[in-house]
Write a structure and sequence with these properties.
This protein is 82% helix and 0% strand. It has 18 helices and no strands. The N and C termini lie far apart (44 Å). The N terminus is likely disordered.
Length: 408
Protein backbone atom coordinates (compact mmCIF):
# COMPACT_ATOMS: atom_id res chain seq x y z
CA UNK A 1 0.00 0.00 0.00
CA UNK A 2 2.81 2.41 0.91
CA UNK A 3 4.61 1.64 -2.37
CA UNK A 4 1.42 2.40 -4.32
CA UNK A 5 0.96 5.69 -2.50
CA UNK A 6 4.59 6.65 -3.22
CA UNK A 7 4.11 5.97 -6.92
CA UNK A 8 0.83 7.89 -7.10
CA UNK A 9 0.98 11.26 -8.82
CA UNK A 10 -2.00 13.59 -9.22
CA UNK A 11 -3.45 13.92 -12.71
CA UNK A 12 -3.58 17.12 -14.73
CA UNK A 13 -7.00 18.08 -13.42
CA UNK A 14 -5.97 17.44 -9.83
CA UNK A 15 -2.75 19.46 -10.23
CA UNK A 16 -4.58 22.38 -11.82
CA UNK A 17 -7.26 22.15 -9.16
CA UNK A 18 -4.67 22.22 -6.37
CA UNK A 19 -2.86 25.21 -7.86
CA UNK A 20 -6.12 27.04 -8.35
CA UNK A 21 -7.24 26.10 -4.86
CA UNK A 22 -4.10 27.70 -3.49
CA UNK A 23 -4.86 30.97 -5.25
CA UNK A 24 -8.51 30.78 -4.23
CA UNK A 25 -7.52 30.22 -0.61
CA UNK A 26 -5.35 33.32 -0.80
CA UNK A 27 -8.27 35.25 -2.28
CA UNK A 28 -10.57 33.81 0.37
CA UNK A 29 -8.17 34.85 3.11
CA UNK A 30 -8.17 38.43 1.82
CA UNK A 31 -11.94 38.47 1.41
CA UNK A 32 -12.38 37.00 4.87
CA UNK A 33 -10.05 39.59 6.37
CA UNK A 34 -12.01 42.36 4.64
CA UNK A 35 -15.41 41.05 5.79
CA UNK A 36 -14.28 40.43 9.37
CA UNK A 37 -12.51 43.79 9.55
CA UNK A 38 -15.46 45.76 8.20
CA UNK A 39 -18.02 43.86 10.29
CA UNK A 40 -16.11 44.33 13.54
CA UNK A 41 -15.12 47.94 12.88
CA UNK A 42 -18.48 49.17 11.57
CA UNK A 43 -21.01 46.97 13.42
CA UNK A 44 -24.12 45.35 12.00
CA UNK A 45 -26.03 48.51 10.98
CA UNK A 46 -23.27 50.45 9.12
CA UNK A 47 -21.88 47.24 7.67
CA UNK A 48 -25.35 46.38 6.41
CA UNK A 49 -25.58 49.79 4.75
CA UNK A 50 -22.23 49.22 3.04
CA UNK A 51 -23.20 45.80 1.63
CA UNK A 52 -26.65 47.04 0.56
CA UNK A 53 -25.13 49.94 -1.40
CA UNK A 54 -22.56 47.70 -3.10
CA UNK A 55 -25.18 45.05 -3.90
CA UNK A 56 -27.70 47.51 -5.32
CA UNK A 57 -24.98 49.18 -7.43
CA UNK A 58 -23.73 45.95 -8.99
CA UNK A 59 -26.79 44.19 -10.40
CA UNK A 60 -25.91 44.97 -14.03
CA UNK A 61 -22.30 43.75 -13.84
CA UNK A 62 -23.11 40.60 -15.91
CA UNK A 63 -24.21 42.75 -18.86
CA UNK A 64 -20.94 44.68 -19.07
CA UNK A 65 -19.39 42.94 -22.07
CA UNK A 66 -22.57 40.98 -22.84
CA UNK A 67 -21.19 37.77 -21.33
CA UNK A 68 -18.54 37.40 -24.04
CA UNK A 69 -15.89 36.45 -21.48
CA UNK A 70 -17.47 32.97 -21.41
CA UNK A 71 -17.42 32.75 -25.21
CA UNK A 72 -13.80 33.91 -25.10
CA UNK A 73 -12.97 30.99 -22.80
CA UNK A 74 -14.64 28.45 -25.10
CA UNK A 75 -13.35 29.85 -28.40
CA UNK A 76 -9.78 30.58 -27.30
CA UNK A 77 -9.49 27.10 -25.75
CA UNK A 78 -10.60 25.54 -29.03
CA UNK A 79 -8.71 27.96 -31.32
CA UNK A 80 -5.69 29.36 -29.43
CA UNK A 81 -4.14 30.80 -32.60
CA UNK A 82 -6.85 33.49 -32.70
CA UNK A 83 -7.08 34.17 -28.96
CA UNK A 84 -6.09 37.81 -29.45
CA UNK A 85 -8.87 38.34 -31.99
CA UNK A 86 -11.52 36.89 -29.71
CA UNK A 87 -10.18 39.05 -26.90
CA UNK A 88 -10.41 42.18 -29.06
CA UNK A 89 -14.08 41.52 -29.82
CA UNK A 90 -14.84 41.00 -26.15
CA UNK A 91 -13.05 44.23 -25.20
CA UNK A 92 -14.91 46.21 -27.85
CA UNK A 93 -18.28 45.21 -26.42
CA UNK A 94 -17.01 45.74 -22.88
CA UNK A 95 -16.35 49.38 -23.70
CA UNK A 96 -19.68 49.85 -25.48
CA UNK A 97 -21.75 48.47 -22.60
CA UNK A 98 -19.93 49.88 -19.54
CA UNK A 99 -21.49 53.36 -19.34
CA UNK A 100 -25.11 52.26 -20.03
CA UNK A 101 -24.81 49.60 -17.32
CA UNK A 102 -23.36 52.12 -14.84
CA UNK A 103 -26.28 54.49 -15.50
CA UNK A 104 -28.82 51.69 -15.06
CA UNK A 105 -27.13 50.58 -11.82
CA UNK A 106 -27.33 54.07 -10.31
CA UNK A 107 -31.04 54.33 -11.13
CA UNK A 108 -31.78 50.94 -9.57
CA UNK A 109 -29.74 51.75 -6.46
CA UNK A 110 -31.59 55.04 -5.95
CA UNK A 111 -34.89 53.17 -6.26
CA UNK A 112 -34.08 50.22 -3.97
CA UNK A 113 -32.12 51.76 -1.11
CA UNK A 114 -34.26 52.97 1.81
CA UNK A 115 -32.07 56.02 2.50
CA UNK A 116 -30.79 58.59 0.04
CA UNK A 117 -27.10 58.17 -0.82
CA UNK A 118 -25.15 60.99 -2.48
CA UNK A 119 -25.50 60.67 -6.26
CA UNK A 120 -21.79 61.16 -6.90
CA UNK A 121 -20.90 58.44 -4.39
CA UNK A 122 -23.36 56.01 -6.00
CA UNK A 123 -22.00 56.83 -9.45
CA UNK A 124 -18.39 56.19 -8.43
CA UNK A 125 -19.24 53.00 -6.51
CA UNK A 126 -21.26 51.63 -9.46
CA UNK A 127 -18.52 52.51 -11.98
CA UNK A 128 -15.85 50.88 -9.82
CA UNK A 129 -17.85 47.75 -9.04
CA UNK A 130 -18.94 47.16 -12.65
CA UNK A 131 -15.61 47.94 -14.32
CA UNK A 132 -13.36 46.11 -11.85
CA UNK A 133 -15.52 42.98 -11.53
CA UNK A 134 -16.29 42.58 -15.23
CA UNK A 135 -12.73 43.31 -16.40
CA UNK A 136 -11.36 40.86 -13.83
CA UNK A 137 -13.72 38.22 -15.24
CA UNK A 138 -12.67 38.99 -18.81
CA UNK A 139 -8.95 38.90 -18.04
CA UNK A 140 -9.31 35.72 -15.99
CA UNK A 141 -11.18 33.90 -18.78
CA UNK A 142 -8.54 35.02 -21.30
CA UNK A 143 -5.71 33.37 -19.35
CA UNK A 144 -7.87 30.41 -18.31
CA UNK A 145 -8.42 29.54 -21.98
CA UNK A 146 -4.64 29.18 -22.26
CA UNK A 147 -4.70 26.90 -19.17
CA UNK A 148 -2.43 29.35 -17.34
CA UNK A 149 -3.68 28.33 -13.92
CA UNK A 150 -1.34 30.54 -11.91
CA UNK A 151 -2.29 33.62 -13.95
CA UNK A 152 -5.99 32.81 -13.62
CA UNK A 153 -5.67 32.57 -9.86
CA UNK A 154 -3.56 35.72 -9.57
CA UNK A 155 -6.00 37.84 -11.58
CA UNK A 156 -8.94 36.77 -9.44
CA UNK A 157 -7.00 37.28 -6.22
CA UNK A 158 -5.79 40.73 -7.23
CA UNK A 159 -9.08 42.58 -6.80
CA UNK A 160 -9.81 41.57 -3.17
CA UNK A 161 -6.12 42.14 -2.46
CA UNK A 162 -6.28 45.71 -3.76
CA UNK A 163 -9.43 46.38 -1.74
CA UNK A 164 -7.91 44.97 1.45
CA UNK A 165 -4.76 47.08 1.07
CA UNK A 166 -6.80 50.22 0.41
CA UNK A 167 -9.04 49.66 3.44
CA UNK A 168 -6.00 48.93 5.58
CA UNK A 169 -4.45 52.24 4.55
CA UNK A 170 -7.73 53.99 5.34
CA UNK A 171 -7.87 52.58 8.86
CA UNK A 172 -4.20 53.21 9.52
CA UNK A 173 -4.81 56.90 8.84
CA UNK A 174 -8.35 57.25 10.21
CA UNK A 175 -9.27 54.92 13.06
CA UNK A 176 -12.94 55.93 13.19
CA UNK A 177 -13.70 55.88 9.46
CA UNK A 178 -17.43 55.82 8.70
CA UNK A 179 -19.35 54.00 6.01
CA UNK A 180 -18.99 56.89 3.51
CA UNK A 181 -15.19 56.83 3.71
CA UNK A 182 -15.24 53.04 3.36
CA UNK A 183 -17.37 53.27 0.20
CA UNK A 184 -15.04 55.85 -1.39
CA UNK A 185 -11.95 53.80 -0.57
CA UNK A 186 -13.55 50.59 -1.82
CA UNK A 187 -14.47 52.30 -5.10
CA UNK A 188 -11.04 53.87 -5.60
CA UNK A 189 -9.25 50.54 -5.20
CA UNK A 190 -11.57 48.92 -7.77
CA UNK A 191 -10.97 51.65 -10.35
CA UNK A 192 -7.20 51.41 -9.91
CA UNK A 193 -7.25 47.63 -10.35
CA UNK A 194 -9.43 47.90 -13.47
CA UNK A 195 -6.93 50.33 -14.98
CA UNK A 196 -4.06 47.94 -14.25
CA UNK A 197 -5.90 45.08 -15.99
CA UNK A 198 -6.84 47.16 -19.01
CA UNK A 199 -3.25 47.82 -20.10
CA UNK A 200 -2.10 44.20 -20.71
CA UNK A 201 -5.47 43.21 -22.15
CA UNK A 202 -5.38 46.02 -24.68
CA UNK A 203 -1.84 45.03 -25.65
CA UNK A 204 -2.83 41.38 -26.19
CA UNK A 205 -5.88 42.20 -28.32
CA UNK A 206 -5.68 41.85 -32.11
CA UNK A 207 -7.93 42.82 -35.03
CA UNK A 208 -11.54 42.30 -33.84
CA UNK A 209 -13.01 42.22 -37.35
CA UNK A 210 -10.94 39.29 -38.61
CA UNK A 211 -12.79 36.25 -39.98
CA UNK A 212 -12.61 33.68 -37.19
CA UNK A 213 -13.22 29.90 -37.15
CA UNK A 214 -15.38 30.02 -34.01
CA UNK A 215 -18.56 32.16 -33.90
CA UNK A 216 -18.53 35.18 -31.56
CA UNK A 217 -21.32 37.69 -32.07
CA UNK A 218 -22.61 40.30 -29.65
CA UNK A 219 -25.59 38.07 -28.85
CA UNK A 220 -23.68 34.81 -28.34
CA UNK A 221 -22.78 35.57 -24.73
CA UNK A 222 -26.17 36.86 -23.63
CA UNK A 223 -27.31 33.49 -22.21
CA UNK A 224 -24.29 33.64 -19.89
CA UNK A 225 -25.13 37.24 -18.95
CA UNK A 226 -28.65 36.21 -18.07
CA UNK A 227 -27.34 33.23 -16.12
CA UNK A 228 -24.95 35.34 -14.05
CA UNK A 229 -27.57 38.08 -13.67
CA UNK A 230 -30.07 35.57 -12.29
CA UNK A 231 -27.42 34.21 -9.92
CA UNK A 232 -26.58 37.76 -8.84
CA UNK A 233 -30.22 38.54 -8.19
CA UNK A 234 -30.47 35.37 -6.16
CA UNK A 235 -27.42 36.29 -4.09
CA UNK A 236 -27.68 40.08 -3.83
CA UNK A 237 -31.27 41.26 -4.32
CA UNK A 238 -32.04 40.20 -0.77
CA UNK A 239 -29.62 42.83 0.62
CA UNK A 240 -31.58 45.96 -0.37
CA UNK A 241 -34.86 44.17 0.38
CA UNK A 242 -33.68 43.24 3.89
CA UNK A 243 -32.35 46.78 4.29
CA UNK A 244 -35.93 48.02 3.94
CA UNK A 245 -36.57 46.44 7.34
CA UNK A 246 -33.17 47.43 8.74
CA UNK A 247 -29.57 47.58 7.54
CA UNK A 248 -28.62 45.21 10.36
CA UNK A 249 -30.53 42.37 8.68
CA UNK A 250 -28.63 42.94 5.44
CA UNK A 251 -25.33 42.86 7.31
CA UNK A 252 -26.22 39.67 9.19
CA UNK A 253 -27.30 37.83 6.04
CA UNK A 254 -24.20 38.96 4.16
CA UNK A 255 -21.87 37.61 6.84
CA UNK A 256 -23.45 34.13 6.66
CA UNK A 257 -23.52 34.21 2.87
CA UNK A 258 -19.86 35.22 2.58
CA UNK A 259 -18.85 32.37 4.90
CA UNK A 260 -20.62 29.92 2.56
CA UNK A 261 -18.98 31.50 -0.49
CA UNK A 262 -15.49 31.29 0.98
CA UNK A 263 -15.97 27.75 2.28
CA UNK A 264 -17.11 26.68 -1.21
CA UNK A 265 -13.79 27.58 -2.80
CA UNK A 266 -12.39 24.01 -2.95
CA UNK A 267 -15.42 22.92 -4.96
CA UNK A 268 -15.22 26.01 -7.16
CA UNK A 269 -11.50 25.44 -7.77
CA UNK A 270 -12.14 21.95 -9.11
CA UNK A 271 -15.02 23.17 -11.26
CA UNK A 272 -12.95 25.96 -12.82
CA UNK A 273 -10.11 23.52 -13.54
CA UNK A 274 -12.60 21.07 -15.05
CA UNK A 275 -14.42 23.32 -17.57
CA UNK A 276 -11.62 24.02 -20.10
CA UNK A 277 -10.67 20.33 -20.13
CA UNK A 278 -14.25 19.31 -20.82
CA UNK A 279 -14.61 21.95 -23.55
CA UNK A 280 -11.54 20.51 -25.30
CA UNK A 281 -13.03 16.96 -25.43
CA UNK A 282 -15.28 15.71 -28.21
CA UNK A 283 -17.21 13.42 -25.83
CA UNK A 284 -16.84 14.61 -22.21
CA UNK A 285 -19.90 12.76 -20.81
CA UNK A 286 -17.94 10.10 -18.91
CA UNK A 287 -15.61 12.53 -17.17
CA UNK A 288 -18.53 14.88 -16.46
CA UNK A 289 -20.43 12.12 -14.64
CA UNK A 290 -17.41 10.83 -12.71
CA UNK A 291 -16.05 14.23 -11.64
CA UNK A 292 -19.55 15.60 -11.07
CA UNK A 293 -20.35 12.86 -8.56
CA UNK A 294 -17.14 13.63 -6.67
CA UNK A 295 -17.98 17.34 -6.60
CA UNK A 296 -21.44 16.63 -5.17
CA UNK A 297 -19.97 14.49 -2.39
CA UNK A 298 -17.48 17.26 -1.61
CA UNK A 299 -20.32 19.81 -1.46
CA UNK A 300 -22.22 17.56 0.97
CA UNK A 301 -19.18 17.33 3.25
CA UNK A 302 -18.86 21.09 3.05
CA UNK A 303 -22.46 21.51 4.21
CA UNK A 304 -21.86 19.33 7.26
CA UNK A 305 -18.74 21.33 8.17
CA UNK A 306 -20.57 24.65 7.84
CA UNK A 307 -23.41 23.45 10.05
CA UNK A 308 -20.94 22.44 12.75
CA UNK A 309 -18.89 25.67 12.78
CA UNK A 310 -21.86 28.06 12.59
CA UNK A 311 -21.85 28.86 16.37
CA UNK A 312 -18.40 30.46 15.97
CA UNK A 313 -19.72 33.37 13.88
CA UNK A 314 -20.43 35.74 16.82
CA UNK A 315 -16.95 35.03 18.17
CA UNK A 316 -15.30 35.96 14.87
CA UNK A 317 -17.52 38.80 13.65
CA UNK A 318 -18.84 40.19 16.92
CA UNK A 319 -21.90 39.82 19.10
CA UNK A 320 -23.99 41.92 16.68
CA UNK A 321 -24.06 38.92 14.33
CA UNK A 322 -25.61 36.30 16.64
CA UNK A 323 -28.53 35.80 14.24
CA UNK A 324 -26.10 34.78 11.50
CA UNK A 325 -25.70 31.34 13.14
CA UNK A 326 -29.18 30.16 12.15
CA UNK A 327 -28.81 31.71 8.68
CA UNK A 328 -25.52 29.90 8.04
CA UNK A 329 -26.94 26.54 9.11
CA UNK A 330 -29.76 26.94 6.63
CA UNK A 331 -27.49 28.12 3.80
CA UNK A 332 -24.98 25.30 4.39
CA UNK A 333 -26.68 22.96 1.90
CA UNK A 334 -26.97 25.48 -0.93
CA UNK A 335 -23.55 24.60 -2.50
CA UNK A 336 -24.87 21.12 -3.37
CA UNK A 337 -27.60 22.63 -5.51
CA UNK A 338 -25.14 25.09 -7.07
CA UNK A 339 -22.76 22.29 -8.07
CA UNK A 340 -25.62 20.34 -9.65
CA UNK A 341 -26.72 23.44 -11.54
CA UNK A 342 -23.17 23.98 -12.83
CA UNK A 343 -22.97 20.41 -14.14
CA UNK A 344 -26.32 20.76 -15.89
CA UNK A 345 -25.11 24.06 -17.37
CA UNK A 346 -22.15 22.35 -19.00
CA UNK A 347 -24.37 19.55 -20.34
CA UNK A 348 -26.59 22.13 -22.03
CA UNK A 349 -23.61 24.07 -23.42
CA UNK A 350 -22.01 20.92 -24.81
CA UNK A 351 -25.18 20.06 -26.69
CA UNK A 352 -25.63 23.61 -28.00
CA UNK A 353 -28.72 24.31 -25.89
CA UNK A 354 -27.78 27.91 -25.10
CA UNK A 355 -31.38 29.10 -25.17
CA UNK A 356 -32.23 26.51 -22.54
CA UNK A 357 -29.69 28.10 -20.20
CA UNK A 358 -31.08 31.57 -20.93
CA UNK A 359 -34.63 30.48 -20.13
CA UNK A 360 -33.59 28.58 -17.00
CA UNK A 361 -31.79 31.54 -15.52
CA UNK A 362 -34.42 34.05 -16.60
CA UNK A 363 -37.06 31.98 -14.80
CA UNK A 364 -34.75 31.52 -11.81
CA UNK A 365 -34.12 35.26 -11.63
CA UNK A 366 -37.82 36.05 -11.69
CA UNK A 367 -38.53 33.45 -9.01
CA UNK A 368 -35.73 34.91 -6.88
CA UNK A 369 -36.98 38.50 -7.14
CA UNK A 370 -40.61 37.60 -6.51
CA UNK A 371 -39.89 35.22 -3.63
CA UNK A 372 -37.50 37.65 -1.93
CA UNK A 373 -39.98 40.50 -2.36
CA UNK A 374 -42.76 38.36 -0.83
CA UNK A 375 -40.89 36.39 1.84
CA UNK A 376 -38.19 38.77 3.10
CA UNK A 377 -40.52 41.55 4.35
CA UNK A 378 -42.68 38.98 6.18
CA UNK A 379 -40.16 36.41 7.43
CA UNK A 380 -36.97 38.47 7.44
CA UNK A 381 -33.73 36.48 7.29
CA UNK A 382 -35.45 33.08 7.00
CA UNK A 383 -37.54 34.35 4.10
CA UNK A 384 -34.40 35.43 2.24
CA UNK A 385 -32.87 31.97 2.76
CA UNK A 386 -35.89 30.07 1.45
CA UNK A 387 -36.11 32.41 -1.53
CA UNK A 388 -32.57 31.38 -2.49
CA UNK A 389 -33.44 27.69 -2.34
CA UNK A 390 -36.61 28.23 -4.37
CA UNK A 391 -34.70 29.90 -7.21
CA UNK A 392 -32.04 27.16 -7.30
CA UNK A 393 -34.67 24.40 -7.33
CA UNK A 394 -36.59 25.97 -10.21
CA UNK A 395 -33.44 26.36 -12.36
CA UNK A 396 -32.29 22.80 -11.68
CA UNK A 397 -35.67 21.30 -12.55
CA UNK A 398 -35.78 23.27 -15.80
CA UNK A 399 -32.23 22.29 -16.84
CA UNK A 400 -32.74 18.66 -15.78
CA UNK A 401 -35.85 18.43 -17.91
CA UNK A 402 -33.83 19.57 -20.93
CA UNK A 403 -31.02 17.10 -20.18
CA UNK A 404 -33.48 14.18 -20.02
CA UNK A 405 -34.98 15.17 -23.37
CA UNK A 406 -31.50 15.15 -24.95
CA UNK A 407 -30.86 11.61 -23.71
CA UNK A 408 -34.08 10.39 -25.32
Amino acid sequence: MSRLSIRWRPGGLARSGLVLLGWMLLRAAMQAATVVWLARQLGAQPYGQFVAVVAASSFFTPFVGLGLSHILLRNAARDPAHAGNYLARALRWWLRTLLPCVAASVVVALWLLPERIALLALLVVAAAELSATSLTELCARHVQAQQRTHAFGAVNAGLPGARLVALGLLWSGTRDAGVTAVLWTYAASGLIYAALLWLPLRAAAKAPDAVLPEPMTARSGLPFSLAVFATKLQGEFNKPMLAQAGYGLAGTYNVAQRVVDMASLPVLALQEALWPRLYAQANPARQLRRTGAALLVLALALGVALWLVAPLLPVVFGADFMDAVAVLRLLAWLPMLQVLRGLLNFHAIHHGRMQKIAWAYAIGGMVSVVSVAVLAPTYGLMGAVWAGYAAEAVMIVFLLQGALRIRR
